[in-house]
Fold:
Amino acid sequence: MKNQPIFVQSKRKYLFLADQKGLTILNPIIEQAIINNDSFEVVFLGKQKEFLHTDIAHWLSQQKMGTYLYVCLPWKELHPIKLKIEEVGFSEEEYQWFGHGDKSKNVFCCRCHEITEVANGEVEINCQYCHLLLEVSDHYSALRHAYLGYVAKL
Amino acid sequence: MTYIDNLEQFPYPFKGNMYRYSNNSIPLDVPKSVDITSNYEEEIKLKRQLLRDHPKRCFQSLSHTLKAQWEILALVMNHLVNYYPDKFSLTKTNTLWTFRNLILNETQQFIYGDESTLLQQPLDFIGRHVQEDLILMSERDGNLYLDAGQLCFPANWSLAFDLGMSFREIHYPIPGFKEEKLDDRILNFLLRLEAGNPWGRNNWSLMAGNRLDTSLETFDDWGKGRKQVTAENAGDLVHLRVEVQTLFRLSRSNGILFTIHTHLLPLRKLAEKRAWLEQFYHILQELPPYIVDYKGLSLFKDVVIDYLKVQLEKEDAS
Structure:
């Protein structure tokens, strides 16, 4: 992930996937595509998200090689979309992603393996399933998309 | 849990009076991945009980690992029948294999490569016949990934959390590991492992208690023992925990089989051997705080040092 979206030149087509705020953040890139007379599509994600992932997977799977994707969504919604994008077959070289809004993190309970979502910066939390007091570590699992929570007190 | 009563059989891990993290691997004299000790039946019973009661804690695998799992099953079975022919047998009729565990009086027939002919995944099946924990590291893109494992006796780590992690990611919490580039050095060593030339190493820690199943998942229970160590009970309560680890390159899948056989020895028994007592006393005294902390010794290290010192003085006086 980059801090700011960067326009990648000479792509066959550009795709933009964002909510209202995300579109504002991606706007300079969209404008660049318009100036260059590049082919592009914008998919706006509103509040109706029931069929979102199926639709997005279908849309992405129809794209040809050389397509470049920009995604900008609230942090909470970003991870499942990224999984879908990678599942469809996009490599890390074919898209840029950005989050906005409140950033939270997932904590993996060392005792019960359940995930508790907490605000960034929390040091100690209670597992919301087994209620064990956990110390939030910086040991991250991409597979679990979570940081390890250790036993905080013996 | 019982411990090895014969001190000569205990894999005492130290050389010299100082300990630091290092790549202390050595080529195996005998290329065998498993060892059968006098605790076999007791430990297999415990393993199977843990697997039954806590399957997700004790076995994890990613779906692409089945071929490598079969390869591990074949390697371990071959070692069992070659090194312990009076305890295990294996007959092969085309793809139909018949494996017999004569210690437990169990027979399993299966078709090699066909998961439907086993009750468990291959790694999970063969792990139920050996005292070792078995870990599969897959190699891809110049890196190693923990893609499957049967882990019943971990030293305070979680297989469920570490599944799918690269070698560097797994060892990220170890202080100094990255800073001293030990992660790069050991990874490069592992990537150069060759089939047919297995290596081994010993790792150690101190346990307040005699449990083999010291998983991260149950730390809130067994970790309390660290607060209960006193000068009076240290000899019986505190155990030197040694993991005998082996590393085998798998010739077909190019993965690595990492085996861990855990042994426990109470300090009272360790103190019977003067050379060990003296050496371990010096090692603990000199151990830097970051290792003391990571190995979980902070709460009882000083009590243990005092205990060892008293034992040394007793020996000197007698």
In short: The longest strand of chain B covers residues 238-249. The mean pLDDT of chain B is 95. The CA atoms of residues 144 and 156 of chain B lie 21 Å apart. Residues 7-312 of chain B form one domain.
